[in-house]
DNA sequence: ATGGTCGTCTTACGA
């Protein structure tokens, strides 16, 4: 048995339906996790996703901002939303699925971007991001008995030196400041998560999932960051076949600034 | 060069 899961910050799900269809045609993931859907639940485009074979869809949206969704070809049970920082943002959705006799808890996150100034005393958005990361430290990969776990999403932090185009030049840029990168690594360590993308690509290699809209030529500049992540409980590590980062999707018509990341498992 | 370009609650603001 094989199983694949894709995470993609889509930056408006309604605007991106054409490239979501393109992704599904190419990759056919069993589960598709989206972030920044930017739409209330009543207006979420369920029909086209169902037409692509995703009959099990759970959504958590709000008007204009944030929003997460899980679209699955296998049944989802026990769906759950956690209101991180208690501010009512649609930034987390979770469900359980079963595959190959295994029970798996799936978390889909959209972590706050954190604004421009990496100082919580003058930038409340940065404080919110740090508080959100602090709350994520409660999240353990082995929290539930006889249940594996996968955590995906746009975590808006590039934790390792080679997760950004220039470690030195980005040390004071939100997404790569030491307080963020150390915080995210503590979430990983404390929760006994495995960074599955880095299990297959050594930390010495550059790895990006996001390229800014603002570059004149994103591909030529190649000033990317690894903001999107796929983590797993340790038992899933040996079952991982490969990770695909679909860089070409950054060049598709009306692209998101993030590209899809897909994990393939023997599961 | 402290810019640039996307998106939506669009002439403001978040990313």
From TrEMBL:
Family assignment from sequence similarity: Belongs to the DNA repair enzymes AP/ExoA family.
Stretches assigned to the Endonuclease/exonuclease/phosphatase domain: 7-258
Hydrolase is among the record's keywords: yes
PANTHER family recorded: EXODEOXYRIBONUCLEASE III
Keyword presence, Signal: no
Keywords: Hydrolase, Magnesium, Metal-binding
Name assigned to this protein: Exodeoxyribonuclease III
InterPro entries: AP_endonuc_1, AP_endonuclease_F1_BS, Endo/exonu/phosph_ase_sf, Endo/exonuclease/phosphatase, ExoIII-like
Superkingdom as given in the UniProt entry: Bacteria
Names of the cofactor(s): Mg(2+)
């Amino acid at each position: 048995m094989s199983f694949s899961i894709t995470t993609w910050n889509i930056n408006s799900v309604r605007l991106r339906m054409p490239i979501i269809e393109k992704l599904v045609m190419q990759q056919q993931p069993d589960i598709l996790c989206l972030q920044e859907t930017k739409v209330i639940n009543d207006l979420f485009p369920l029909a086209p996703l169902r037409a692509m074979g995703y009959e099990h869809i759970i959504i958590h949206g709000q008007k204009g901002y944030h929003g997460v969704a899980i679209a699955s070809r296998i049944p989802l049970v026990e769906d759950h939303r956690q209101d991180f920082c208690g501010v009512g943002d649609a930034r987390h959705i979770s469900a359980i699925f079963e595959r190959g006799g295994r029970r798996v808890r799936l978390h889909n996150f959209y972590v706050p971007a954190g604004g421009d100034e990496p100082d919580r005393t003058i930038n409340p958005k940065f404080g919110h991001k740090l508080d959100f990361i602090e709350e994520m430290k409660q999240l353990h990969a082995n929290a539930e008995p006889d249940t594996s776990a996968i955590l995906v999403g746009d975590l808006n932090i590039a934790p390792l030196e080679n997760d950004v185009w220039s470690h030195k030049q980005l040390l004071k840029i939100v997404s790569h400041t030491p307080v963020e990168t150390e915080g995210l690594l503590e979430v990983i360590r404390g929760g006994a998560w495995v960074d599955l993308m880095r299990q297959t690509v050594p930390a010495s290699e550059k790895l990006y999932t996001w390229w800014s809209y603002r570059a004149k030529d994103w591909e030529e500049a190649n000033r990317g960051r690894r903001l999107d992540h796929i983590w797993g409980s340790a038992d899933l590590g040996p079952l991982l076949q490969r990770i695909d980062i679909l860089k070409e999707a950054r060049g598709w018509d009306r692209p998101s600034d993030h590209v899809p990341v897909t994990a393939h498992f023997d599961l």
